[in-house]
Amino acid sequence: MATQEIEQPEIGTIIKTILLTSAVIVLPGLEWSFMGWSQVFLPLLSFLLLGRFGGHAGKRLLLSSTALALLVYIVMGRLELFLFSAALLFSGYVLFRSAERQDPAPLSGLKTAVCLAGAWLLIMVLLSAGTGTSAYGQLLKTLDRSIVETVEYYRQSDDVSSETMVMLETTLYRMQTLVPMIMPAILGSMILMITWLTMVVGNMFRLKAFDNSAWVSYRYWQLPEKLIWAAILMGILTLLPTDLRAVGINILILLGIIYCFQGLAILVFFMNKWKVPLLLRSFFYVMIIFQSLGTLILLFVGIADIWLDFRKLKSAAETKGNA
What pTM value is reported for the model? Predict the structure, then answer.
């Protein structure tokens, strides 16, 4: 990460920054059903704030803003939402510290994802304490109840044919069995998506706004080659009739998402290399990300890059090393 001199902010800037940051932190708690989605940007807020004001001043501003937001959450009686917000903000701090140490992008992402996963696990333990039921178990029960209620709703509907009803029941009852098994991967996928979004958008914004990027451009990101062995081992584990099969399936899903990120980086690389117009480029991104076939293509390309080196990054590194 490029270094730069960070000027001490003026008192007016400090006050405005604290108030604005606190407002962003509090926003999801005001109306969760409408603004809850904005919580995923809290790590990005933390990362950019620290990048703008530096580790020392930025940390003080972030702590002051978080303390002010805590008071508001206490008044609203939404302390549990504050805990998740604090965990997201802290993950942004971990990412910033990793970038300061000049860790490569994969290692920075791993540190941030592990930190956020650990924080969420700790929060669930705290929320479960003294209630007699675990927050995780309550989540599974809520999802199970939602599936049952959906089946009952369609059964009472006169607009659904008997053939369609049989197909819906079969699908929903399969979900009832499958979702509890892959719930760790679902939660892990959320963590990976938040981490990826923070790193990609944060790196781009810092380069344009502060002229201080944390890593090389996203189109040059590359996963460690040895990671493929973890995917192979997990694939073998899913085929074995043991109690660890569910563990293998969950980890394999998470690894698949990670390789989709690499596949997307390769797509971005060639879109830039071929100078595809922004509007057409955006259309391709949307189509390939939100189509199941496109996701499979990204996964295949991300894995195949280990051997085919589509962007010739390894060849360029070897040439540079021999020079």
Answer: 0.92
